[in-house]
Amino acid sequence: MSDYYDLLGISKTASEEEIKKAYRKQAVRYHPDKNPDDVEAEKKFKEISEAYEVLSNPEKRQMYDRYGKEGLQSGGFGDAGFGNFSSMEDALRTFMGAFGGGGDSLFDLFGGGGEVHAQQRKYPDKKVSVSISFEEAFRGVSKTLVISGWIPCAKCDATGAASKSDIRTCSACNGTGQTVQTRGFFTMAMTCGHCRGEGKRILKSCNFCSGHGRVKEAQDVRFHIPPGVSSGVRLRVAGFGDAPSGGGPRSDLYVEIEVRSHEVFSREGDHLLVTLPLTFVEASMGCEKEIPTFSKLCRVKIPEGTQSGKQFFVRGQGFPHLQGRGSGDLKVNVIVETPQNLSAEQKDLLKRFGELSRLEQTPGCSNFWNRIKRFFGSEG
Prior knowledge:
The protein has 10 helices and 15 strands. By secondary structure, the chain is of the alpha+beta class. The longest helix is centred in the first third of the chain and has 20 residues, at 58-77. Residues 78-83 and 101-119 have low confidence and may be disordered.
């Protein structure tokens, strides 16, 4: 057999806490429940349990450090089985002792769950969708929904009993809602079959809710939607979901927001977007435009010679930030429209304008034709 310190993977100066931590890690790895029908794992489990049994005892550890395993036997520990730690019961007893005071749960280690009393149960959360206008998303709005669901029975105070005297603690589980079964050295908690985990027995049921402790009813739920929300945002309305049968806290209501589109404005994050059409004359000579938004009338100055696709910003006039102070911006995208259905007089004026125009007055056109010339000039 290997040295006890080597078996646990620790140094000879390891503290008591380090010894226990190392053993726990190894014991869980080689435990028979995790390695069924594995002879080597069973042997390893016995060996590390023996090592822990010695090293966790200061007197035995001192004897082992001085004289080895032979020293343990000659020092009066032979009856304890050291050097021949073959009993699985002894190994399991050591394992249980190591986990007894450390706050660890055997159910957590081997896949089980903790205790949940009946009164701590919670019904699944309720989900609804609500559609709001673009402007309501910008400003925020309060809404009232009529929600049909399970609410606590007011007549019996959600107990399900006709009166308080009709409630008895379950004798099978003593009100815990669970029964305990012992299998060898392991203790397993299971839902009580007599009270189905309720922890109580009802002698006479409430005639209003038929003993369920809840009734189905429509109720008005009023909640506030903050300014700045967008489609897909979920708001939690605590305690307005369904009540579980047999008592317990109500679940929550989650409201998913859907924002309808707007015929003038659109949105980019927290920025408010608008497309501003300009005439050829307005873009050429410059102008000022007033754009009414949901918060104020915004004045935008368009300089002369503005090109189609140019974007202007009005700071702080976008959507409010949902999680913080401040707001996005108003983004104004300019589109220069080409006039249609010209009269004869308008055509004559434009022809005259064209004759007076110089190519450098339209830098985009000038650069394009210069590139064309360079390209075909290089071909020649």
